[in-house]
Amino acid sequence: MIGHDKIGRNDPCPCGSGKKFKRCHLGKEEELSLGGGEELSVEEMGARIVGLPRVHYGRSDEMMAALDFEALTGSAAGVAFVDLKEYTDLNLFGSAHVKASRGHSGGVFINPFKTVKADPTNLYLAISADIDDSTLVHELAHVLDYLGGSRLVPGTLTPLSLELTIPVDHLEHPKTFGRWLDVLSQKFNVQLDADDTLIRYLFQEGMLIEGEVIQAKNAFTLKAKSERILRFLSERSDEIDALIRELPGYIGPRRPQD
Q1: Phi/psi zone of residue 27: left (φ > 0), alpha (ψ -120 to 50 degrees), beta?
Q2: How far is 83 from 125, CA to CA, in rounded Å?
């Protein structure tokens, strides 16, 4: 498990919430257990990630060369790509869910709280050798949203989703994420998969939740906005199904119970 005795009370919690350890999992350390993992401090975890070899899969180099992150977001942070399998094989807290899904295929925006001390100049994306264009622009949209938008990190909002009993997708894909997804898909002429096409559609229809609303964590407001999205999906189900039916990742009509 993670070496909790090596985590300072004021260090970022390794669960990725962005809170200090003392205000998050201090006293609930058993929830951070991975089983079989090596004991690592936050600094050691970051060093392991930063030390992974850089990769150049898919159109990652092309897209990065065409994007001026400082002009787009006001941040001079760079983006480093590492291999998804090598990242998940580190068995660090917060990466196990990636290993369990899609068999090391796809991509993930690594929580910056894991890497900021080891490398304050870069954000890290773990991607697989077979990453498709839709997944790549999805992850880059998360980076742009983090730098110049909601400041939300995917993978950290599940506790809030469970607490409020609303779909985590409604929290992880705020309005500014949808805008970046729309911009990138057009800029790089990317045919989005079914899920991302639905997110872009919700953005274009003004349905995605604002990042500042999610950050405020007001239960009444978030539940109301989530219910609005679900009603919209129900009312437009036939139109949405026709829009995404022929796209990769289609799993059937997107109705509220999905």
Answers
A1: left
A2: 8
φ, ψ dihedrals at 81, nearest 5°: -105, 130
CA distance 79 to 25: 29
Between 184 and 12, where is the model more confident? 184
Phi and psi at 184, nearest 5°, equal: -70, -40
Instruction: Output b/e per residue, 77-103; b: 16+ Cβ within 10 A.
Output: bebbbbbbeebbebbbbbbeebbeeee
Q: What is the Cα–Cα distance from 85 to 105, expressed in whole angstroms? A: 8
Residue 124's beta-bridge partner residues?
80
Dihedral sign from CA coordinates of 30, 35, 36, 40:
negative
Instruction: Show Cβ contacts of residue 99 under 8 Å, excluding neighbours closer than 6 positions.
Output: 88, 89
Contacts of 58 (CB under 8 A, 6+ apart): 127, 131, 132, 133, 136
User: pLDDT grade, residue 252 (50/70/90)?
Assistant: confident
Dihedral of CA 51/116/74/179: which sign? positive
Give the residues across from 249 on adjacent strands: none
Within 10 angstroms of residue 202's Cβ, the number of other Cβ atoms is: 22
Average pLDDT over residues 60-79: 96
Q: What is the pLDDT of residues 178-237, one digit of tens each?
A: 999 999 999 999 999 999 999 999 999 999 999 999 999 999 999 999 999 999 999 999
Return the minimum-mean-pLDDT range out of 5-14, 88-97, 103-112, 228-237. Answer: 5-14
